[in-house]
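Re-run with default settings, no changes from the original entry. Doing this only to confirm the output is reproducible before filing.
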Amino acid sequence: MKTHLEGPAPPRQRPRSQPRSPADRARKSREQLESRLAESVGEAARGARLLAGLTQAEVAGRVGIAAEVYGRMERGKMMPSVPTLFRLCLALRLSADVGLGLATAASVGAALWEGDSGHKDQLPEMRKVLRTLRRMSRSQLNLMNQVAAAILPER
């Protein structure tokens, strides 16, 4: 057992952490934000890719990047550049708001139908729904009516 000539050893003091400068705090905050943003983009891209039934390699080819790079983006390990994000949104038919985590797909869809707008008939989404409905049988139309009634808020 080690002893000091003058008596017992003084208690060890924990080093005090240096107060972080405003620049350090800003950098850390920016890094956290970028990390959350990259994760949000990755989750949205993965969800849209799976919904479209595409592989990572197919999406990467459509966007014009390597499959490995797309895989890192989808896992939230890499943030795409703005031009790449734009091409990604086009390739996956993904709203940039949803891709960036600013809105959920449900809220974007709901926003199209909020309020009683007389312009809904002119929306491309409405024309697409009507084209699809015209191809359905009577029983399929009844089922679609039940689904629509279930998802629409009551008035």
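The mean pLDDT is 80. Residues 34 and 79 are 8 Å apart (CA to CA).
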